[in-house]
Specification:
The chain is of the alpha/beta class. The protein has helices spanning 34-43, 59-62, 71-74, 76-79, 89-95, 126-131, 148-165, 183-195, 209-214, 230-242, 252-255, 260-273, 277-290, and strands spanning 51-55, 84-87, 104-107, 109-111, 121-123, 136-141, 169-173, 200-203, 220-223, 247-250. The strands form 2 sheets. An 8-stranded parallel barrel has the order 1-2-3-6-7-8-9-10, surrounded by 6 helices. A two-stranded antiparallel ribbon has the order 4-5. α12 (260-273) runs antiparallel to α13. The longest helix is centred in the middle third of the chain and has 18 residues, at 148-165. The relative contact order is 0.13.
Amino acid sequence: MPDVDDLKESKNYYSDTPQKSEGFFLKGSNSLEWGMKDRLARIFNPVSGNTVMLAFDHGYLMGPTSGLERMDLTIVPLVEHADCIMCTRGALRTVIPPTAGKPVSLRYSSGTTVLTELNDECLMDIEEAVRLNASLLAVMVAVGDRYEATTIRNLTRTVDLGTRFGIPTLGVTAVGKDMARDARYLSMASRVCAENGAHVVKTYFCDDFEKVTSTCPVPIVLAGGKKLPELDALTMAYKAIDQGANGVDMGRNIFQAGDPIAMIQAVKAVVHDRETPEKAFDLYNTLKDEQK
Ligand code: R5P
């Protein structure tokens, strides 16, 4: 216990220096509670304002897809290069070392697989997310889909539950088979996520992507989509950042790349340093050669 008998009277008021009241660096996040901001500041780099999130949650709806057959061998070496990892609780508990020290975007909704009809999903317990120290709760939102209402209820419930514990929500725009991946649809889907309380939105690249980012009041991270040639994937990431995205949440274009460790570093150069796609591709090839 501190000695209370000899307390010195404090006079260090620094009256000529007003206490700082700083705004938060992320779009649409200034009114959030301290814990939410702390988690977001671990995901998004406060200097660049952006993030490279490594997504490997595909198994929950696709099974052991190419590159994810042995996540202990293919994903774990990538984790140190990511700003954040996005995965299921199953992957987290079975292969990711708790010493990795990376914020986790936890796949919080779960449901049907590619063998039936996607997006008929439910949510896990919030206690489980707290137990796993999740920094972000990732929920599928299928606007215009048969399961639209279910997924929007899931989003709403997740925002409510996460708010109790200071954990932000990531709305993942799931594009149905009949939906066009264009700016009109993706800006609507992203806006629906944000208006229903999502703190971050993940969506796909499209022509006039600036419409999607500028009409969404919270940060957008780019979903990678199917595997592209490395230069094309870096070009897509560059254009997305240039048009207002706050990072990428990329899976197959990293872990299915010719050299995944070189690729994630090249993606980081684009996302954090605004490196051009050509220079980032040079970096990819240099790092690839070094690792031979
Ligand atoms: C899709 O719902 C999953 O959240 C994937 O993690 C997501 O699509 C990102 O992975 P990819 O870059 O391979 O599309």
